[in-house]
Amino acid sequence: MSLHILKPGLLDTIQDEGRYGHGHLGINRSGAMDRAGMAVANFLVGNPAGEAVLEMHFPAPEIRLDAPVLLALAGANFTARADGVSVPLHTPVLLQAGVSIKFQKAISGTRCYLAVGGGFALDTWLGSCSTNLAAGAGGWKGRALQAGDVIAFRQKISVAQFELGEKMRRLPWSANVSDFYPANQAIRFCPGPEYGWLDTESQASLEQSDWQITAQSNRMGYRLKGPGLHRKNPAELVSSAVTAGTIQLLPNGQPIILMTDSQTTGGYPRIGQVVQADLPMLAQLGAGQAFALQRVPLETAFAALQAQEQMLRRLKTGCALKLAAVLTARH
Q1: What digits encode the pLDDT tens for the residues 82-110?
Q2: Whole-angstrom Cα distance, residue 287 to residue 179?
Q3: pLDDT for 16-75, tens place per residue?
Q4: Mean pLDDT across the chain, nearest whole number?
Q5: Which alpha helices (H) appear in the chain, and where do they start and end?
Q6: Crossing angle of the two packed helices 35-44 and 298-329, in degrees rounded to 10
Q7: Do residues 21 and 36 make contact, with C-beta atoms less than 8 angstroms apart?
Q8: Residue 72 near residue 90 (C-beta atoms within 8 A)
Q9: DSSP labels, 102-150
Q10: C-alpha 102, offset from chain centre
Q11: CA 4 to chain centre
Q12: What is the CA radius of gyration of the chain?
């Protein structure tokens, strides 16, 4: 009962909700870049929100299944096909043993999440299965997946769930994820501790400009390109705590938004903090894409996160009820 990597993708890693409580030791959180995408994929197959998933970038891997599995893809659309048959996004599917999955073309998004019912059989490191690439720990051998890797499933799916000769069966529901990735919405942020170090013109420019994600961006941080920002305060900053979503101002006047593999402290001015509810939307943007930033009060940030968590709870409940009804009916 396992998943075989026949051909690796650009960067395929095992990720979950991350590891917490070790920042004082310099160990970052890691975890899925798009936590909403991870949760959606998991809910569709009956898993908890933070169950370990496969996070993929394009070009994505070629995969073979050696046992029947309940599987879901969420996040980016990489045009998945199972033995030539289209695998729908945000929809649970039953796949038979021996099926191979290929990803043909990136249509939208940057990161695709693959979840299997019952999860993968993995060992934890500091309480998490997430891959920490810098430490070479967690996930699958602390690294990106390579050809020949075999990841075991924790749960066995009965072949009774399939019709005779059936390779793939699409279950009759999908998740509506449009509220997690609203089109053309600015990335919202709250002012950071050093926001006041920016001069008045730069504070205005931060919101009135389009910011392009450069090719020097990765899971550690998104380097942005736009009009140069200027400080009115030349003081040096003692290294201070940072986290995913922290917007720092680099010495060249350009911002960087720290992402989930960021360091735990930094010495650059923290001019903003991306609203947590907008991190999934930001995580699905890639190099060359541009977006606007919008300053909001802390109350808006809390309300947005609460609304997003409510949507996820409703999705979890709906998926659990539908999945129980369908699988029970097959026995």
Answers
A1: 999 999 999 999 999 999 999 999 999 99
A2: 23
A3: 999 988 777 778 888 999 999 999 999 999 999 999 999 999 999 999 999 999 999 999
A4: 93
A5: 35-44, 200-208, 279-283, 298-329
A6: 20
A7: no
A8: yes
A9: EE----EEEEEEEEETT-B----BTTB---BTTTTBSTTTTS---TT-E
A10: 20
A11: 22
A12: 21
Calculate ∠ Cα 156-157-161, nearest 5°: 165
Q: Which domains does the chain have, with CATH numbers?
A: 2-179 (no CATH), 187-296 (2.40.100.10)
Bridge partners, residue 86, by sequence = 81
CA-wise closest residue to 245 among 187, 193, 162: 187
Q: How confident is the model at residue 158 (pLDDT cuts 50, 70, 90)?
A: low
Helix, strand and coil percent figures for the chain, each rounded to 5: 20, 30, 50
Tokens of 19: 């590891």
CA dist 139 and 41 (Å) reads: 18
CB 66 within 8 A of CB 157: no
Helix, strand, or coil (residue 247): strand
Cβ–Cβ under 8 Å, residues 54 and 129? no
Reading the block at residue 203, the tokens are 């504070």
- Please, are residues 169 and 162 in contact by the beta-carbon 8 Å criterion? yes
In this predicted model, which residue has the larger pLDDT, 158 or 198? 198
| pLDDT of residue 269 exceeding 60 | yes
Residue 160 to residue 177: CA distance in whole angstroms? 31
